[in-house]
Amino acid sequence: MRGTSILIQRSRQRNNVPRLLPTRALSPSATVIPSICTSCLSILRLAQSQLPGSHALPIAGYVAAFHSTTVSLASSRSTPKENFRKAVGRNKVLREMIQKPSRMVLSERVGQSPRDRNSSRDRNGNPRWDEKSVDTGGGMNRKTFRLRSDDKQQYSKETERRKRDLRESSTHPSPSRFEQRPSVRERPPAFGSRLEHSSTLRRSMKLSLDALQAERKQAADELYSKAEARSVVRQQSEGRPRFGAEPYVIPIRPERPPRDVLQAERRKAAQELESRYSGRGRGAAAESDKMFTRPPIRRFAHMKHIASLDHVSSKAREITHAAEEQFGYFETFDLLPQTLEALYKDGLKDLENVTPTPVQSLVIPSLLDKEPAPSLLPLPKNFHKPKRGEARTVNEYQPSQNFQTYLIAAETGSGKTLAYIIPLMDTLKRRELAKKEEEKAKEAEKEEILNSKTWMFDIEAPPVTQDTTVGRPFAVIIVPTTELAFQVANLIKKLAYTIKLRTEMITREVSGKAIRERLFRGQTTDIVVGTPFMIDRITEANPEMLHRTSHIIVDEADSLFDRSFSSLTGPIINRAINLEKLILCSATIPKSLDAYVSKTYPECKRLVTANLHAIPRRVQLQVIEVEKDPYRGNKLLACAHVLGNISKDQTEPGYKKRIVVFVNERETTAAVTSFLQEKGFDAVEINRDSDSRSILESFTGEKEAVDEGKEDGKGAMKILVTTDLASRGVDTKTVKNVILYDVPYTSIDFIHRLGRTGRMGRRGRAWVLVDKDSNHDYVKEVKKTMFLGQALI
Ligand SMILES: Nc1ncnc2c1ncn2[C@@H]1O[C@H](COP(=O)(O)OP(=O)(O)OP(=O)(O)O)[C@@H](O)[C@H]1O
Question: What is known of its domains (predicted)?
Answer without folding.
Answer: The Q motif is unique to and characteristic of the DEAD box family of RNA helicases and controls ATP binding and hydrolysis.
